[in-house]
Amino acid sequence: MIRRILWFVIGTAVGVYAVTRLKKRAQVLAPESVQASAEKVAAAIRHFGDEVRAGMAERETELRTALGIDTEAANDREDDR
């Protein structure tokens, strides 16, 4: 009799735990959550692209200075295009 009660309690506890975990997983996979995650990824990608462009501009300036290239003349030629 005590074994049956023990197994019933264990089964109930496992069932409650499983239902709780499944509810949390369903909330994570809900459309609102997926959209929020996609927005975070898109923002991170945009930020990375901005950082790369800023680094490229900085490096171009360093190279032009090191090579003695007139940056104003180069900018004027680009504007004429």
Describe this structure as you would to a colleague.
By secondary structure, this protein is mainly α. It has one domain. The chain contains three helices and no strands. The longest helix is centred in the middle third of the chain and has 37 residues. It is rod-shaped, with a radius of gyration of 30 Å.
Indicate the radius of gyration in whole angstroms: 30 Å
Would you report the number of β strands?
A: 0
Shape: rod-shaped
The count of helical stretches stands at 3
Oligomeric grouping of the chains: single chain
Give the tally of structural domains: 1
> How would you sum up the major sheet?
none
Low-confidence stretches: none
Work out the helicity level: over 70%
What is the CA-CA span between the terminal residues? 92 Å
Run of helices and strands: HHH
Strand content: under 5%
The structural class is mainly alpha
List keywords for this structure.
single chain; 81 residues; mainly alpha; DUF6167
Describe the SSE topology.
Blueprint (H helix, E strand, L loop, with lengths): L1 H27 L2 H37 L3 H10 L1
Pfam families: DUF6167
InterPro entries: DUF6167 (IPR046165)
